[in-house]
Design a protein that fits this description.
Helix 3 runs antiparallel to helix 4, helix 7 packs across helix 11 and helix 9 runs parallel beside helix 12. It contains 14 helices and 18 strands.
Length: 435
């Protein structure tokens, strides 16, 4: 049961069989807080209302009982005539109105009928109701779109990695294979995935018709689709054929490595780095790979800081609805990155892990919500970047002393060379966080 706010009134609604139903009971409170049933019955006894309800049912309900409807039409307009939602539903087998019992009970109506009722209550109320309802539905569709894309990515990556586990992909292309000039891009992909060209496959399978892709499994075809997309990008970047083959083969074998720490959901992320005389390339974040590894975080804010040797930042977090998961890395220089489990119900509460992140090792650290985070700069200069799955909120900030003896973190910086902000130096001991 969802709720929306219309002119300071909470209005419940729900979906059933791809149709939306809105609470007339809640809407009636706009007119009279106490006599909601009286308001609804006054609307239902009107001849125009019954005519509208009957027409809606005839258009949408093949089981609608027209004879009973006609009887109600004949009685409408009389001073003694009354009509309740329950009676209307029982007599006509109507589906446009629903009478629900229990805590979240009341009279609900299909949105077409609910908008008509709102118009009778107040034109202003109707317009605000429609506007808010449309906003909520657009938000719902956006979220559904995100979930669909996220789940498809997860399925895609799972099929890809399961294929690897089942040895559907060759381990490494040979130098001879990499140096060979292939007749087509299709053959280059065939070698990256299947380990042979189409001609080699035909020679090895003279009794079979068609080509190797006709005999591929679903898993192999999913992997092939992934490689085709990457190959198109590599061609656009002007990467030579031999290097593209090596890269595609490497990606097919192992796209990204995730290493659990002593706090299991604090995870070290090792990307596959492709380097040559021009420089290097690697993926910082791959949604499908992260989902496969059990990291379900949608990053919405990226931050960067620059610090010199000896700077210690932390320990910081945000609490409540503004809690943040982070993916952090040292783009320049070297840092010691620390995560402390501050979740009271966690089996690793109070434990910490420290991981060296640098521009050389290109490691990243994923820190889940509920963990404190901090880092110390070990190089002359460090540019530190982090992705967050929630926006910054000053009022939700919490923190603990970086040098709390109860934690005993070794920051690998001599005490006399530490540079700590006044704010961080005044943070409370770790044990006071959960008081």
């Amino acid at each position: 049961m969802a709720k929306m706010t219309v002119l300071d009134k909470e209005v419940a609604w729900y979906s059933r069989n791809e149709a939306d139903y809105i609470s007339l009971t809640d809407m009636a409170r706009y007119r009279d807080e106490e006599r909601v049933n009286y308001i609804i019955q006054n609307w239902m006894r009107l001849r125009d209302t019954i005519s509208f309800l009957g027409l809606w049912e005839r258009l949408n309900n093949p089981e609608f009982k027209g004879i009973e409807f006609d009887a109600f039409m004949e009685q409408s307009g009389k001073n003694s005539f009354t009509l309740t939602p329950k009676l209307w539903i029982e007599k006509t087998s109507a589906i446009g109105l629903v009478s629900r019992q229990g805590r979240y009970g009341g009279t609900f109506a299909h949105k077409d009928i609910a908008f008509e009722f709102a118009s009778w209550l107040s034109v202003e109320f109707k317009l605000y109701l429609i506007k808010e309802f449309q906003r909520l539905k657009e938000t719902e569709q956006t979220q559904l779109g995100w979930d669909l894309k996220r789940n498809l990515a997860k399925i895609n990556y799972r099929v890809h990695t399961d294929a690897i586990k089942e040895h559907l992909i060759p381990k490494v292309v040979t130098p001879a294979q990499a140096g060979y000039v292939y007749a087509s891009e299709a053959d280059l992909l065939n070698v990256a995935l299947f380990g042979m060209t189409a001609a080699a496959w035909r020679d090895a399978n003279p009794d079979k018709t068609g080509n190797m892709r006709d005999y591929a499994t679903v898993a192999q075809l999913v992997c092939l689709s992934n490689l085709e997309n990457l190959n198109a990008l590599f061609i656009k970047d002007g990467i030579p054929s031999a290097e593209r083959l090596s890269r595609l083969n490497a990606i097919a074998i192992h796209p990204m490595n995730f290493i659990k720490t002593e706090i299991p959901d604090v995870v070290i992320v090792e990307p596959r780095v492709f380097g040559d005389a021009r420089g290097y390339f690697f993926e910082i974040h791959n949604e499908a790979a992260f989902l496969k590894a059990g990291i379900d975080a949608r990053f919405v804010q990226d931050n960067e800081s620059m610090s010199r040797y000896g700077v210690v930042r932390g320990l910081h977090a945000q609490r409540g609805e503004y809690a943040q998961a982070k993916l952090v890395r040292a783009a320049v220089g070297k840092v010691l990155d620390v995560a402390v489990d501050a979740r009271p119900d966690s089996p690793t509460y109070g434990k910490w892990v420290a991981v060296e992140l640098s521009e050389e090792n290109k490691r990243q650290l994923f820190i889940p919500r509920g963990c404190l985070h901090g880092f110390a700069v070990l190089s002359q200069l460090a540019v530190f970047q982090y992705k967050c799955d929630n926006l910054y909120n000053k009022e939700s900030e919490i923190g603990a002393q970086h040098d709390d003896p109860a934690l005993g973190i070794d920051w690998r910086i001599p005490a006399e060379k530490k540079i700590v902000s006044e704010r961080d130096a005044s943070l409370p001991p770790f044990k006071e966080l959960t008081r």
